[in-house]
Amino acid sequence: MKLPAxxxxxxxxxxxxxLAIRLRRRAAEVVALSEFFAVYGSLINFAGxxxxxxxxxxxxxxxxxxxxxxxxxxxxxxxxxxxxxxRLNVPFPMSVAAGGCLAAAVAMAIGAPVLRIKGIxxxxxxxxxxxxxxxxxxxxxxxxxxxxxxxxxxxxxxxxIYGALAATAYFLTALRWSQTGWSFASIREDETAAMVMGINxxxxxxxxxxxxxxxxxxxxxxxxxxxxxxxxxEFGFSAEVQLLIYNIVGGTRSVxxxxxxxxxxxxxxxxxxxxxxTAGPLRLGVNGLILLLVILYLPxxxxxxxxxxx
Amino acid sequence: xxxxxxxxxxxxxIGSVYGLFAIGYTLVFGVLDILNLAHAAIFTLGxxxxxxxxxxxxxxxxxxxxxxxxxxxxxxLLLYRVAFAPLRRRADSNLSGxxxxxxxxxxxxxxxxxxxxxxxxxxxxxxxxxxxxxxxxITITSLQLEIVAVALGLMIVLSALLKYSRTGKAIRAxxxxxxTARLLGINVEWIVSQTFFVSSALGGAAGILYxxxxxxxxxxxxxxxxxxxxxxxxxxxxxxxxxxxxxxxxFGLSEVLTVELTGxxxxxxxxxxxxxxxxxxxxxxxxxxxxxxRQA
Lengths: 310, 296
Hints:
Oligomer: heterodimer
Largest interface: A-B, 43 and 44 residues
Distance between the termini of chain A: 53 Å
Radius of gyration of chain B: 19 Å
Shape of chain A: globular
Largest sheet of chain B: 2 strands, antiparallel
Shape of chain B: globular
Number of strands of chain A: 2
Helix content of chain B: over 70%
Mean pLDDT of chain A: 83
Strand order of the largest sheet of chain B: 1-2
């Protein structure tokens, strides 16, 4: 074994030499890790946020309701929390919580009429709602119009994002095996049968919708305080579709599906960049192809690959 | 007053293009109960391929535009084969079809981006002799007249085909009930493929007319019309052809009237989507739609 040339002079004994090498390796690891975070830190943060947003759509999906309004709820959370922090100096945790609560309140208001609509028509109604929210954000003066809000203080950390993600995942897993969770599942399998069994389907559909909106609002608030700037376009139709793609690619049979889907699909563009694929269209096309292959051959998503065969 | 009248006419012109686009949407929905979100991508590719045929291939417009329309139809066949046919037997085929059409839309859009680039392009100047007519204070160009004539003509031809031709009757039979149609000896697969061909060809034609009307083509031009088309077919009633035509014109008029009355161009879509939300809540079958006994 060759000695590094710049060992300290006193490091004569074998043990000392080994320690020095180990120390240097450790230092190199620390540097590598912090470099990794410096390069990929924002990717890690956004992957976590996308996973949280994907979970917000997972909740109504797990009750069989295809909502395309969750990006709009995230937008409501983002704008409300950002405005509270910037204009009123509200402490950060409170403003994020307020954003989540207001998104949930809006969901409660529109849920009653909208959730009477079923299937694809519900998807379109929530989509129309999302467009109305986006247009409001473009036209109101308090939201800064099409240019959006600029200069939101940067307060979100990776720990907060992944803490929120872990808490949400834990809560939703626990919910899955509760009475509410079983009611969601039965509505998803057969709404008429669930109604006949005495489940208050209207109530549980509303609960799923409001809970999803709350999670989306929280995620939106975290996003606003991470990104410095928010614009209405970020919460439009493409964002809605992106959330749906995370859920479909990952699978909606368990909480882990949407998380896996969001993490993989957020990481893939970076992986492709590292592999030397720089052309934008190709990366977009890869996303489309993955979605197509999953819906054709893995209807329950990538997470069904890891599920136990029953 | 004359400004107002001019705006109404402009709204009618653009509304006829919306109607043409929405007809393709609503035709597929009426037959398959599937929302085809790749329709807007075919609209884009129709416009861009027409541009390619006129500029790079150097064909005159009267050959290039029908060719591009046929090409869009073929893309529709491809779309059906890849994204919809394999899912037909699945129980949740209308939701999984929605998602696979999103996937195809992304693939088509990335093709458009890869081939044509992200910039906005236009048809070569001087391709048409664009005469300008003045009626008192109202201005109409011959290009506008041609666009509205083609759009309305295609809509009338389609309505007549659906009403009187053998294939049209078969399409309506499949829309009514697939199983009954099969019992009557109709080749359902073939009819559905033809529906996709016609629907996509009309979508491509709408893309060409849209590109001519606004004198701009871009790979993301489908995005703006996708939601408008959705609004139009819900306004007119899902699956209803006359509903799509009237809905398209009503949507075009509402756009220009909103701008005219409020003076804010950003509010253009607000009225339409608010109306859309209200219609879905109050009368989900749309203004002209047949009542659907089963939903979802």
